[in-house]
């Protein structure tokens, strides 16, 4: 057999092997009538690690801004717990046509380095939400089961039907080692379980446009999130208490340098007196690293466990000069902050 024939056979064998590798389906496919208890817990820890201020070329103490300030106290934490029971009343393949969600717990708590702390539960606790798919509008309508004692809140429309991590799933069958990515609003919805991110951003944009400093929120978020990608890799199966689970590993490393000068300057100038002139530079540097894992019950068609950790370090460098009717002044700020985000979830 000559060399050309050998190479041809080898290439064909590799191609055939690629087509014959075992593939698994990781898809959402719960049966009609299924009831799942889902628990989500989020912890966020943030701190301001360094702060430098200057005014007219002179470095100043942050305490001179008018209040007591101690960098050691510039930290805090936030916790969020969501516990629900989802009843899948009507299904059409992978589409949930009607879902009844009993909200057992929806609460948050915070603590700050200054000693301040607090907690609050959502008014929707103890209530049952009904999600029905509206094919014409291509979205879910949301109502309450107990209409007489319904919670009157405009925020009900911001609840998301998807607490099943569907945005994280691959679009086709996968073999061990296959990878796909998650970004944009799909990634954001993963970080904020129970929130319809698109509707929340639309509402925030509307409120911001009516404020004293109308910031283009969607444009700013697009700039900040550009390049933020979570890589999902199927690593095979795992046996847990006699149950075969499909396992997805999550990872990401991200660095960016974002110029927010124009967006912030436009917001400030919207309400600035015409006799004032402002020159501004605002640059945000970010570095993030994420790791996590999802285990999926292929037979039952839903996730079993989900864990994700993200560490972010950001540095903001802002400087500007202003001419107010002939009186010139300049200043700047350089700050470094860090954030640790941790999410754990289960469904059974």
Distance between the termini: 58 Å
Largest sheet at a glance? 13 strands, antiparallel
- Name the shape in a single word: globular
**Protein structure class:** alpha+beta
Beta-strand portion reads over 45%
Poorly predicted spans? 9-20
Helices and strands, in order, run as HEEEEEEEEHHHEEHEEE
Q: Could you tell me the radius of gyration in angstroms?
A: 25 Å
| Tally of individual domains | 1
Estimated helix fraction: 10-25%
Q: Could you give the count of β-strands?
A: 13
Mean pLDDT, to the nearest integer, reads 86
Number of helices: 5
How would you sum up this structure in a few lines?
Strands 1, 2, 3, 4, 5, 6, 7, 8, 9, 10, 11, 12 and 13 form a 13-stranded antiparallel beta sheet that branches. Helices cover 16% and strands 51% of the residues.
Q: What does this protein look like?
A:
It is a single chain. This protein is an alpha+beta fold. It has one domain (24-347). The chain has helices at residues 3-20, 184-191, 197-209, 217-225, 261-269; strands at 35-55, 58-60, 75-92, 95-112, 117-121, 128-134, 139-144, 179-183, 229-240, 243-259, 276-297, 302-324, 327-347. Strands 1, 2, 3, 4, 5, 6, 7, 8, 9, 10, 11, 12 and 13 form a 13-stranded antiparallel sheet that branches. A hairpin with a 4-residue loop joins strand 4 (95-112) and strand 5. The longest helix has 18 residues, at 3-20. The chain is globular, with a radius of gyration of 25 Å. The protein starts with a helix and ends with a strand. Residues 9-20 have low confidence and may be disordered.
